[in-house]
Amino acid sequence: MFHDHATPLVIAYLIALGGWLLANRVFPGIWQSKSDEVIAKPRVEFGYALLGVIGILVMGMLWTKGIRIPESGMFASISGALNQILIFMPIILVMVIRRQSWDTAWIPKDRIWIRILVGLILASLAVTTYSILRVGADSPWTIIVRIWRYEHLDKIVQVFLEDLTIAILFIRLAKIIGHAWATVVVACLFAAGHIPVMVSQGTTWLELYGLLRDAGLGVAVILILQKSRDFIWFWFIHFCMDMTQFNGISGVG
Questions:
Q1: 176: how many CB neighbours lie within 10 A of its CB?
Q2: Domain total in the chain
Q3: What's this model's pTM, rounded to 2 decimal places?
Q4: 2, 62, 100, 202: least buried by Cβ within 10 Å?
């Protein structure tokens, strides 16, 4: 049992990733082995992807300045989800305008419902693991019910689009510098992305060392995603684990 949030979170992620490895071994037909994604000009496509990311940052800045669809009333979550789509629209447009296959964003079309089901089961397993290991956390079922609420639609969409963006960037970068280096780079960028928030909250330098743990987890996640060439199943795990940081969800506090 752990009093901190990070340790049970990491263990829950690892249990879920291990669950996918087991599912892939027991049901090998769900994620069929495929050759690497075909990208004719990876440097060019990576450049366009970076432009898409810059566009996301610009749209995000506009959102923070209040230039967005109003998020209030009974349709606040729907408006929030639409705002997230608008924020990430630049990277979506890159895929559409460049006529890139969605396989190059780790969204294979086959067996989609089975992959979603596996993702939901693994997400529930991760939440259960977190609930058991975190001191003061409510029961797994209680946490799951709190997570999957209409009010969190915008967060569900946001996590999906974050994973989509990472997949697009990683696949193109891997074609340029190789899968190993791309894995390390993307994992480190993922961890570094937490620094501004941590510093603004008065995080100590000792606590910043926890970013090494985050980078290590990022490496594990990306390695498994490379094997599956599909982020849909992981999306549900990512969303549920993100939600456990809120005391109103986990019941801690």
A1: 13
A2: 1
A3: 0.91
A4: 202
